[in-house]
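We store chain and fold; thus.
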Amino acid sequence: MVRLKIWIDITNAPHVRFFRDVITHFQDEGEDVIITARKFGDIHRLMDLFGFEFTSIGKHGVTLDEKLIESTRRAYELSKFISEEKPDVGLSKHSIELPRVTFGLGIPSVYVLDNEHALAANRLTLPLCDHIIMPEVIDLWDIMKTGGDPNVITRYRGTSEIIHFQNFEYNENIFEDLGLKLEREKTILMRPEPSLASYLDADCHESVLTPIVEILKDYANILIIPRFKEQADIFRGYDNVTIIRPPVDTFSLMKRCDLVIGAGGTMNREAALLGTPVISCYPGKPLSVDKFYIENGLMVRSTDVDEIVNTALRLLVSEKKAKEIKTDDLFRIIVESVYAAADNE
């Protein structure tokens, strides 16, 4: 039996958990898995936490010109690395560089998509992808407008976060294991906005969560998982506010908390799947994948501070009620798509 060589590129911290079970599956099947990862956020720490060997190539740019320079440099370095490795297929989730490198080297690629608002990234990548996997809730026309070929798209029910819980085991003692000293009965977990993302115009030294924290800290314990040091600095010095430094078992943390208030996306959707009440205060235009949870009654969205606070106080005294939603087996879709892409080489 011929051993398949699969290249997986990791460019954002949530993608580590997204691909964790996919990587393990391919390795258990005897395939040769090559992992590259850029230096950004908690990517390297999470890779080490899960015990994955990887090659660090490139880093994230902050300003527009830095993004262009770093992405160009990373594509160059990846091109040299991958031309020597000669993988049979490439797999990524919103990697800017993988589709460009695989296309240039004639390697088939599988691309996982869940953000139709990342216009610049989508225009740079989608026209070059051999296979695209995306939620059916995203309007196909939005993807076609940025160059995605509808003939190579596989759509599924649900969102990408459903794959994160493939082998999740809840640790109900997560608060104790983290040594948290919580004075109040209720606990809220918060996640600031993705200030450094190209699709969001935001200042990394400020956060939409600040006025929310200032009020709710008097009613509940506040746990905050910042994306980078500047965000952590915003919330230092507040009474009853604890900064959680990744990597930690965020799934157990979300499930144990009484409420999640997030100005991002991934953690909100994960919490919704875990049955924890969620308020999204993402400052940009809502993604279709967020609308999926809102329409299914698993998430509330608002950018009004008073409304968020009042909703939070109501949810804190309400009983948690997990709601089932029908989703497809995204794990199986990805695995089968990788093998199909390699067979069609």
Q: What stands out?
A: The chain has a mean pLDDT of 91. The radius of gyration is 20 Å.
